[in-house]
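Hey, quick one: can you model this chain's 3D structure?
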Amino acid sequence: MDTWIGLMSGTSMDGIDAVLVSFQDNTLCIHETFSKPYPEELRQRLLLASQNHATPDEVGELDTLTGVLFAETAEQLIYNCSLDHSSIRAIGSHGQTLRHQPSGPSHFSLQVGNPSIIAEKTGITTIGDFRSRDMAAGGQGAPLVPAFHKHFFGSGSEDRCILNLGGIANITWIPSSSGRPVTGFDTGPANALIDAWCHDQTGRLYDEDGRWAQEGIVQQALLTDMLSDAYFERPAPKSTGKEKFNLDWIKTVVKRHGEIRPEDVQRTLLQLTVITAVRQMPQSPAMAVYACGGGTRNRLLMKELALALSPVRLLDTAELGLDPQWVEPTAFAWLARQTMEGKPGNLPEVTGAKGPRILGAIYPA
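Sure thing. Here's the predicted structure for all 365 residues.
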């Protein structure tokens, strides 16, 4: 039985998640998982580069450094489960996004984490650069995980919305009827703004369980101003990232409202995530929402989402057989399998591409 490795680091830039998985028809089996945090110096350099504060030399260095770290993460995963490298068919590596610019005449999505280094150091065929082909075909290059969601999370009796709470929040709408299309798009910020403001004001990388936000109150005028951003009204297909929703975006809006307690800003940012996710979801009477991503560990965020969705049920993807933390790395292992088998990995109705495309570039062992 072939096994596959998925490597993922999202817009939160907190580290690399790795999963060893096997697939059979519409089922999957997780054999091993491992997470490796970024060294703080490297994380800071990546953050600066993502804000256009890096020279070409520095971007090249980051491509190499993150490639080495991704390879080490894969090696540690393999070591932990005492598996022979020869039984692993391929590694699917998303890399670390530095910039995602899906619109304009010269649209692009830039990830670092050189797949050649991963293939060389592990001796395992590696697939990377998953977004470029979809964008070349006129798509957004994101989100890509809805194809995986459709394959493994679909139901014949229940309309399902998969809500991914990463740095950016995105939804995948999977109707129970095969006659209706799957849809999906980035709804806006999630952890990206919550974490950025928390780190700027407290020095902590994230607001554990939303405890700091719980000390604040929602500032309605500030929230209304945030919600007026044109992105939230833009029709799908659409995608976004930290190049838009970042600390500067927060400070620009906050500056228009005089003195506001930092914890009130934090609470308002959390509510922004809730409202922009919920109000952009399709509605149906036979619907359930299944959350995944790092935001599921924020208890206040999950509580507020449940209140906003009621009477629609809010669960997490563990109910569907996959722990919320491992959905995205598993998706990129599956996308690697799609590539190796010559099958499309995108959903044109989600990304806006001209049609299905085989994604990624193959770096042989």
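One thing worth noting: The two ends are 19 Å apart (CA to CA).
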